[in-house]
Design goal:
The complex is a heterodimer of chains A (about 220) and B (about 475). By secondary structure, chain A is mainly alpha-helical. Chain A has five helices and two strands; from the N terminus they run H-H-H-H-E-E-H. Chain A has two domains: about 110 residues, no CATH class; about 80 residues, no CATH class. Chain B is globular. Chain B starts with a helix and ends with a helix. Helices cover about 80% and strands about 0% of the residues of chain B. The chains are: A mainly alpha (about 220), B mainly alpha (about 475).
Chain lengths: ~220, ~475
């Protein structure tokens, strides 16, 4: 082992090999994926008069995606449904089908996540939670999910004295049967824009559409 | 070897130690500071998982951010600085070449650590991405890449101008690490931050980066240290040394393909997932060869290991590498992936690699090298023993509790009738255990830091003392 140029090129080449395979290979296969209609015409072209999926986030939900990133929610939540038979993603109702690459092409930063300390959120917008449920859950998860270890995000809310009439968007605490988290008499909890954005983002998260390469998984 | 060459080799060695003194001390001191910062943030994150209201009123300290700060300070703060100190020193020592550009290295180290501090601040303020290991803003990473260039070029110069033309296996690992790091760092940085690569291509690139960070950067330097210090301290040749290059090249070829293992069943090409599993299984070659080379050399001399504090750290690290290889293979079978994926078991494996293997080897190496920089011996053996005990017990408890926790979590998650709140409840005792173990680790790190401060203090005092008492200190 004395031939330096040989050694250095070997060291360089091994990594080049995996870079070409893994990174470049994926880019070649997926790099130019576009939005698509659920079905294709007989020539395999996109039906341009139908809705194209995935649909872009609109309005507040876009800001919500940023809030999701800067709070580091993806340390505890994934946004990817595995195929039927892998764990119980499907049985838990986390999605109607497996997630595929096309679902992610509009995300500026992909939020796949790698831990499931909480549930998968790829289709959370599809579950029957209303906006107030999400608000209460973010304000303090103990209200909706006692003993959860999801952190409270109370700093996304204003706790303030009611002046005259109660604010329209003040949180409705009627779910809080324990009475532990309700604001005191004469006070209210109002979401900031960031909290509203985050909730809009939650409501808009779903992969509730079929794609040419992936149909809904049959129930049984 | 004649007496003359022995003496000249010794004088070259001390010349090397002196030539690296300022940069080496900067790297080591920064490594230790980041180690403490990282373990504090790691502890805070761990507590939050069973007391979610802990420090929850401050946006700065929400779980998502403390966890990211933990990852980044351990990776770029502790690990990289320790590598700069230990890796460069091994390259210089084995090449019998002193460092010519100590100033350049020192500047590189300074810029590296300043950029990192700024990046950590950005995370705390919410200027972060969702990709672990790449949470900090692109500009911060660019400036770190630039500062690395200063360090890496000096590393290359030392190696190129080496006087001892023979290349040893530990040198090979170290030099390769110093080459691979800028290669995959710049490639990933460029693709993720400065092109508009979309969708899961980003996830694959990110996975490739995070995977290489451990496999092509921490692992080679960790192995370099194992191959260097263990035979040296034992005064034994490596068992079946001729196998070592095979171990090196198989690591180089296979490791980096293992990314797919982390992305399995995800929205990425199927062949990446398949090659990921194959590559992980093929990792048994380097793991086995290290086992034969290093661990086999150690086993007959276990008594000696117990009495030598530097060896104890290094041997703990080397054995952990074997365990890491075995566990990695077992946990990548499709059945166990279906259960363990996305659970604490993943964190357990990562702690096994990053701490039990890599960090323990770095501790051992630093305990060996630092006295050479300041030419004073460690002031307190007690603190070293304490550090070893707390680190070895602490990390074992962390790994086992997370492993059990992850498997239980995975089993329960696979059963659609078990609610998430039940899972949270069942995993609590393991998470609490982990927190206690992390406190123990932190205490160990503090005693390391304290001992280091004392070492600096003693050596500075020695500088001002009359010559003959200085002689005494060096000999002691």
């Amino acid at each position: 082992m004395k031939n330096l140029p040989f050694l250095i090129s070997g060291i360089f080449a091994t990594l080049l090999f995996s870079w070409m395979g893994v990174v470049l290979g994926t880019q070649i296969q997926y790099g130019d994926l576009e939005r698509s209609s659920s079905e294709l015409d007989e020539n395999g072209n996109i039906l341009s008069d139908e809705t194209l999926f995935p649909e872009p986030l609109v309005g507040l939900a876009q800001i919500g995606e940023e809030v999701y990133t800067e709070m580091g929610c993806s340390h505890c939540h994934t946004q990817q449904v595995r195929k039927k038979g892998m764990g119980s993603d499907f049985e838990r109702g986390w999605g109607k089908r497996q997630s595929v690459a096309r679902d992610y092409i509009l995300q500026s930063r992909v939020l796949l996540g790698s831990y499931r300390i909480g549930q998968d959120l790829a289709n959370v917008g599809d579950r029957d939670y209303d906006r107030n449920w999400h608000m209460l859950h973010f304000y303090n998860p103990q209200i909706t999910s006692p003993n959860s270890n999801m952190p409270p995000y109370s700093f996304l809310f204003d706790y303030k004295k009611i002046k005259g009439q109660k604010s329209l968007d003040a949180l409705d605490f009627s779910m809080d049967t324990s009475n532990l988290y309700k604001p005191e008499e004469g006070f209210e909890v109002v979401p900031t824009t960031r909290a509203k954005a985050l909730v809009e983002y939650m409501m808009s998260l779903n992969q509730d559409y079929e794609l040419p390469e992936m149909k809904f998984t049959a129930l049984e | 070897m004649s007496k003359d060459t022995l003496i000249s080799e010794e004088s070259i060695q001390s010349k090397i130690d002196r030539s690296m003194q300022s940069a080496g001390l900067l790297f080591s001191a920064s490594a230790i500071v980041w180690l403490i910062i990282g373990s504090l943030f790691g502890l805070v994150s761990a507590i939050k998982l069973h007391i979610p209201s802990f420090l929850s009123g401050f946006e700065w300290f929400t779980y998502g951010r403390t966890q990211s700060v933990f990852i980044c300070s351990m990776a770029y703060g502790w690990s990289c600085n320790a590598i700069f100190a230990v890796g460069l020193w091994i390259i210089a020592r084995l090449g019998l070449r002193e460092v010519r550009h100590g100033g350049l290295m020192f500047c590189g180290g300074l810029i590296w650590n300043l950029s990192l501090s700024f990046g950590i601040l950005c995370i705390l303020l919410g200027q972060m991405t969702s990709l672990d290991f790449l949470e900090m803003p692109g500009g911060v990473f660019l400036s770190m890449l630039f500062s690395y260039a200063l360090i890496g070029i000096s590393a290359f110069m030392i190696f190129k101008n080496r006087l001892n033309k023979e290349i040893y296996i530990s040198q090979l690992y170290a030099v390769a690490g110093f080459f691979w790091f800028p290669w995959f760092f710049s490639a990933a940085l460029f693709i993720i931050y400065f092109t508009d690569v979309r969708g899961t291509v980003q996830s694959v690139t990110h996975g490739w980066y995070a995977h290489n960070f451990f496999g092509m950067w921490l692992t080679p330097i960790g192995l370099a240290a194992a191959y260097y210090f263990i035979p040296k301290l034992l005064k034994r040749p490596i068992n079946k040394y001729y196998l070592a290059p095979l171990g090196f090249w198989s690591l180089a070829l296979f490791y980096s393909w293992g990314v797919g293992r982390l992305l399995i069943n995800g929205p990425v090409p199927v062949w990446i997932q398949a090659s990921g599993t194959i590559a992980t299984v093929l990792m048994f070659v380097p793991a086995l060869i290290t086992l034969i080379n290093v661990n086999w050399t150690v086993i007959p001399f276990f008594k000696q290991v117990l009495s030598n504090y530097k060896l104890r750290f290094a041997v703990f690290g080397a054995f952990s590498f074997t365990v890491f290889g075995i566990l990695g293979i077992f946990s990548s079978t499709p059945d166990s992936v279906a259960v363990n994926q996305f659970t604490y078991a993943r964190e357990s494996l990562s702690q096994l690699g990053n701490y039990a293997f890599f960090s323990m080897l770095m501790f051992g190496s630093l305990y060996f090298i630092l006295p050479k920089f300041v030419r004073t011996d460690w002031p307190s053996k007690f603190l070293i023993n304490f550090h070893f005990l707390s680190s070895s017990i602490g990390i074992t408890v962390v790994i086992i509790s997370l492993w059990l926790c992850g498997n239980i979590q995975g089993e329960l998650m696979s059963d659609p009738n078990v609610s998430f709140l039940t899972i949270t409840e069942v995993t609590q005792p393991y998470l609490v255990t982990r927190t206690f173990a992390l406190v123990l680790l932190l205490l160990g790190h503090l005693s390391f830091a304290f001992n280091f401060l004392k070492l600096l203090f003693v050596s500075i005092v020695a500088l001002f003392e009359p010559v003959d008492s200085k002689q005494l200190v060096v000999e002691a």
